[in-house]
Design a protein that fits this description.
about 35% helix; Alpha-Beta Plaits; single chain; about 20% strand; about 160 residues; binds adenosine-5'-diphosphate; four-stranded antiparallel beta sheet; alpha+beta
C-alpha cells in the first residue's frame, strides 16, 4: 500500500530581536526557544537600525501616531536579525512568539513570557512567506545567508 506523507514546506523567516530583548538580556533565551523547536540558524547579524530602514520595514504603521515612539524604541540599542529555517517556519515562529500585544499573549509564548506591552514585545517575525523573502533581503546582504548540513551533535545538557 502506498503511504502518503504530507510534507511541510521548508521556509526561512526573518526575526528581529528588539531593544527590549537585548537590554533585558533575553537574546539567549529567545534563541533557545527557536533552536529547541528545531529551527536552523541560516543567518545572524547585529546592527543599529537607521530611520530610513525602520521607515521601510514599518511602512504599514509609519503614519500612525505611535510611530515616532516605535522608532525611538527600535533605535535605543542595536538589534539582532536572525534568519531561521524549518518546516513552515513563518507560521510556526509566529505561533511561538504570540500576538503583537504582550499583555494579550499567552504564557509560554515569547511575548507572553518576556514582553511588557504592545510596543515592547521582544521580537519581530515575518508574517507571510512573501514578506519573509522581502525582509530577508532587507536585513541580510548577499552571502550572509548560509546553506549547510547539521552534521555533528552534542551531549544533551
Ligand atoms: P507585529 O510586529 O506583531 O507584526 P505590527 O506589524 O502590527 O505587529 O506592528 C509592528 C510593531 O509596531 C509592533 O511589533 C510593535 O512593536 C509596534 N506597535 C504596533 N502597534 C502599536 C501600538 N498601538 N502602540 C505602540 N506600538 C505599536
Amino acid at each position: 500500500m502506498r503511504t502518503a506523507r504530507v510534507l511541510g514546506s521548508m521556509e526561512t523567516t526573518l526575526i528581529l530581536l528588539k531593544p527590549d530583548c537585548i537590554a533585558g538580556r533575553k537574546a539567549g533565551e529567545v534563541l533557545k526557544r527557536f533552536e529547541d523547536a528545531g529551527f536552523q540558524i541560516r543567518g545572524c547579524r547585529m546592527f543599529r537600525a537607521d530611520s530610513a530602514l525602520l521607515r521601510e520595514h514599518y511602512a504599514h504603521i509609519a503614519s500612525k501616531p505611535f510611530y515616532p515612539e516605535v522608532e525611538t524604541f527600535m533605535q535605543s540599542t542595536p538589534v539582532i536579525a536572525l534568519a531561521l529555517a524549518g518546516d513552515n517556519a513563518v507560521g510556526r515562529v509566529r505561533d511561538i512568539i504570540g500576538p503583537t500585544d504582550s499583555k494579550k499573549a499567552a504564557k509560554g509564548t515569547v511575548r507572553g513570557d518576556f514582553g511588557v506591552d504592545v510596543m515592547a514585545n521582544i521580537v519581530h517575525a515575518s508574517d507571510s512567506p512573501e514578506n519573509a523573502a522581502i525582509e530577508l533581503k532587507r536585513f541580510f546582504r548577499d552571502g550572509e545567508l548560509f546553506d549547510y548540513e547539521m552534521s555533528y551533535g552534542t551531549k544533551s545538557a
